[in-house]
User: Which sequence fits this backbone?
């Protein structure tokens, strides 16, 4: 199988005031990053850096995904359990246009705490890291593909190449697929019936899937294929520069990865600050 074997390069180093950067999205020209604590979207375009504030009435930005069909940036918003962040009953999935104007805001109600969002073929998927649920918008409602409590901690999602199933990285249960018609959920272990736990961001590239493993420190970039009822897994990169990796996105012939998000420093102020390698690129062979 192919792999991103060339040395990674630093694409962007967020200014120190943006202490926690979580999500990343791109349309092939513009790159968006979510600065969680200050409720800001960082914008990188052709060497010029800018930012836009989250719309009034929205929470802290987490995962991001660009919707090429609508020309919207979808944002999972919530109130993460961090010093200085006010608690909330529910987060929301929101969408903004390129100028930061609010276009959509949906939530299934209290207890919804989204962290990751993905888009493909005009579909949008959002996952809840606290109760394992996965939803897709249907009008002004969120349709549950995985109901709350069925799984444990849903993270990244990716549509299969045939568009029939959604691959879900559950932090505690491992990789699963969901049939988009029947909503049947199937766990896909590694060889030996072992689950691949500790995955965060997820993206499909052809028939392969790349994911961030941050269940241990330092983090890793892993790649897997679905082979029948199990997955074949390989480690592409372990350790530097993946000090505290979270999300990733495909950008043409490379992967863009939030390599040092800053969660330890945001959770415990006495921890070292986020490093310079906020966003790095791994080129495909």
Assistant:
């Amino acid at each position: 199988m192919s792999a991103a074997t060339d040395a990674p390069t630093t694409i962007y180093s967020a200014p120190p005031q943006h202490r926690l950067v979580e999500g990343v999205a791109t349309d092939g020209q513009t790159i968006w990053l979510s600065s969680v604590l200050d409720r800001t979207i960082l914008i990188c375009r052709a060497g010029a850096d800018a930012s836009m504030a989250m719309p009034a009435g929205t929470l802290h930005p987490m995962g991001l995904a660009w919707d090429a069909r609508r020309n919207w940036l979808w944002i999972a918003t919530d109130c993460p359990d961090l010093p200085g962040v006010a608690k909330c009953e529910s987060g929301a999935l929101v969408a903004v246009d390129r100028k930061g104007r609010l276009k959509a805001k949906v939530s299934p109600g209290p207890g919804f705490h989204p962290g990751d969002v993905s888009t493909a073929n005009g579909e949008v998927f959002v996952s809840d890291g606290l109760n394992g649920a996965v939803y897709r918008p249907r009008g002004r409602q969120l349709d549950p593909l995985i109901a709350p409590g069925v799984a444990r901690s849903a993270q990244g999602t990716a549509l299969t190449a045939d568009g029939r199933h959604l691959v879900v990285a559950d932090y505690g249960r491992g990789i699963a697929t969901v049939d988009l018609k029947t909503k049947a959920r199937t766990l896909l272990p590694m060889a030996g019936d072992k689950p691949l736990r500790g995955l965060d961001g997820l993206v499909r590239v052809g028939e392969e899937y790349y994911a961030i493993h941050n269940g241990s420190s330092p983090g890793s970039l892993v790649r897997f294929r679905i082979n029948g009822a199990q997955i074949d897994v390989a480690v592409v990169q372990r350790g530097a520069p993946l000090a505290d990796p979270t999300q990733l996105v495909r950008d043409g012939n490379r992967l863009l990865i939030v390599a040092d998000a800053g969660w330890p420093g945001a959770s415990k102020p006495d921890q070292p600050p986020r490093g310079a390698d906020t966003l790095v690129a791994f080129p495909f062979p």
Notes: The chain has a mean pLDDT of 94. Residues 263-267 form the longest helix (5 residues). The helical segments are 263-267. DSSP finds one helix and 24 strands in the chain.
